[in-house]
Design goal:
Blueprint lengths: L2 H26 L2 E3 H9 L4 H10 L2 E3 L4 H9 L4 H11 L9 H7 L3 H6 L1 E8 L2 E5 L1 E3 L1 E3 L6 E5 L6 E2 L5 E6 L8 E9 L4 E5 L21 E2 L1 E7 L2 E6 L6 E7 L15 E7 L1
Parallel strand pairs: 1-2, 8-16
Antiparallel strand pairs: 3-4, 3-9, 5-16, 6-7, 7-11, 9-14, 10-11, 10-12, 10-15, 13-14, 15-16
């Protein structure tokens, strides 16, 4: 066999391998389109399964104009699935990369990393965005408190049953997030939250930065829309100072300062 013949065969083999690899890559990275969603719905798959598939697909190429949405509705695609399709089609928000940008966003890198991106207060008076404030640890008379500047929050409502809308990569869980009631000290010009030891669902202590159990309120969590969670307190709130407290100490292994317990604060008149 001549050298030219051997080279020709080698070129053919390499070409076939490249073609096969390209074809395998295309199969491996599945692209989900409108017709795939309609096919799953028509096959009788539940809305939960179809929604999960939309969220977890490696790539999506949805067509979601007004006419497309009407066509999906006529094909029997439910609202929850359509909401998931719309969420996947939105451009990914750019994560702030410096402290100035994070401050403007009202967040800090510890929350960005944990997946929490925004907190809003929804009441009969409207919806208000809440900003993160940081506390300072104080230890008078053998107790430990997280103090926040100002005896009152600038965000004030009258509704006794407000709702928090939390945008997060996963559902807020007890042990990291708390619906807290604070004590207002006008003489010192601070709001205080008593700290204690809280056990998480995994059985591990939440740490000293977790609020005392008597200073937190039970709440329910419901998914408002993909990535947005409705936090509902289980009883009417009395006039006073409140907040959505984030136990940042649970990231202590990553070098986080436990004295930076974050609070999205508001008050009820």
């Amino acid at each position: 066999m001549s050298l030219r013949t051997k080279l020709s065969r080698l070129v053919v083999i390499v070409g076939l391998c490249c073609f096969a690899f390209a074809d395998w890559s295309a199969v491996a990275e599945e692209v989900l389109r409108n017709q795939d969603v309609v096919k799953m719905v028509s096959a009788g798959l539940s809305e939960e399964i179809v929604t999960a598939k939309v969220r977890e697909a490696p790539r999506v190429e949805f067509q979601l104009s007004v006419d497309d949405l009407i066509a999906l509705r006529k094909a029997g695609v439910g609202d929850r699935v359509v909401q998931a399709m719309l969420a996947r089609s939105k451009p990914a928000p750019q994560t702030p990369t410096n402290s100035v940008a994070l401050e403007v966003a009202g967040l800090d890198s510890r929350l960005i990393v944990s997946g929490l991106t925004s907190v809003s207060l929804k009441s009969a008076e409207g919806t208000l965005p809440l900003r993160l404030i940081r506390g300072e640890v104080a230890s008078p008379k053998f107790f430990v408190y997280m103090n926040y500047r100002g005896s009152q929050s600038p965000v004030r409502i009258r509704d006794k049953r407000p709702v928090l809308l939390v945008t997060s990569a996963s559902a807020p869980e007890v042990g990291r997030y708390f619906f807290a009631k604070l004590n207002s000290d006008k003489r010192e010009g601070v709001r205080s939250l008593k700290l204690g030891t809280m056990v998480t669902k995994t059985g591990r202590p939440g740490g000293r930065a977790a609020p005392d159990p008597d200073w937190v309120l039970p709440f329910d969590v419901k998914e408002e829309s993909p990535g947005t969670w409705r936090i509902m307190v289980k009883r009417d709130l009395e006039p006073g100072e409140y907040g959505w407290y984030v136990n940042l100490e649970m990231d202590a292994s990553k070098g986080v300062n436990p004295q930076g317990g974050g609070l999205f604060d508001f008050g009820i008149d």
